[in-house]
């Protein structure tokens, strides 16, 4: 039986239980726990604790993805902006704190006043994004105007497109290999929808993690210090806090798997015993067998040629591709055809 996870958005900040984006969470969780392969939405990974744990993961020697992403952006920000003449409006899907975006904004700031629209489902992430970029706003030669949008990716992008000035080209940032959290068919469908919100000549800067030896990937998602394990198990703690579930975290163990056919890392939480779980908000219950897992996140890996083909299949022209040599990772600049 094929496993599919269609993730409409991924957030690197806190899920705010009262936000509009969380209104369907209870239904999503109950549906996921009712499947043959039980699953929980990956956005549950990112409450305040989960976000702090993820920041710690990015510092681990085993996890080179974030550092590679940041190296490429620092090294090639000027080249990215140089490929896109004329006034630019910048938006970012799943901005998180905005830290990795800073080199792009600084490069553009040397050319023009900047309008930057971070899109995230988390109020706290958008607040931290503004704080992170205040220094750039104050110190740079041109003003940076930041307008945060608390919504999902495509609705946010359409709103940004409505607010563009007639002469502006849109630069969409989709960094950190978030595209890898989608199954491949869902990723292509998403990219086509994204292209549909753009005009010819607009641009997408897409970060994507590349294929690596299996042992290297497994260590990146199951580090020696156990930080990733704590991050993954927090999905259960977060469900307890926001939904009134009764997951016993001591009865689960983190598990990272590599699926060679799908070329993806999967994170699961494995049940260490027979147990029942209930959710107080609606009385939902489910049973887990010893050794049964709940799937929490997928991270697909790519090759450079595949990404160029994806650009053409989704209505873009691949313009430039920069690959980090220390930790194979690609920044891909595509133009809307």
Note the main sheet.
Answer: 8 strands, mixed
The sequence of SSEs as H and E is: HEHHEHEHEEHEHEHHEEEEEHEE
Number of helices: 10
Q: Overall pLDDT, averaged?
A: 90
Radius of gyration: 20 Å
Strand content: 15-25%
- Helix amount: 25-40%
pLDDT < 50 stretches: 1-22
Basic shape:
globular
Termini Cα gap: 37 Å
State the total count of DSSP E strands: 14
Structural class, please?
Answer: alpha/beta
Please, could you describe this protein's structure?
By secondary structure, the protein is an alpha/beta fold. It has helices at residues 25-33, 48-57, 65-82, 102-109, 123-139, 153-163, 184-196, 214-220, 227-243, 304-313, and strands spanning 38-39, 88-93, 114-120, 144-146, 149-150, 169-174, 203-209, 252-259, 264-271, 275-279, 284-288, 293-300, 316-324, 329-336. Strands 2, 3, 4, 5, 6, 7, 13 and 14 form an eight-stranded mixed β-sheet that branches. A four-stranded mixed β-sheet has the order 1-12-9-8. A two-stranded antiparallel sheet has the order 10-11. Helix 2 packs antiparallel against helix 9 (227-243) and helix 3 runs parallel beside helix 4 (102-109). It is globular and about 60 Å long. The two termini are 37 Å apart.
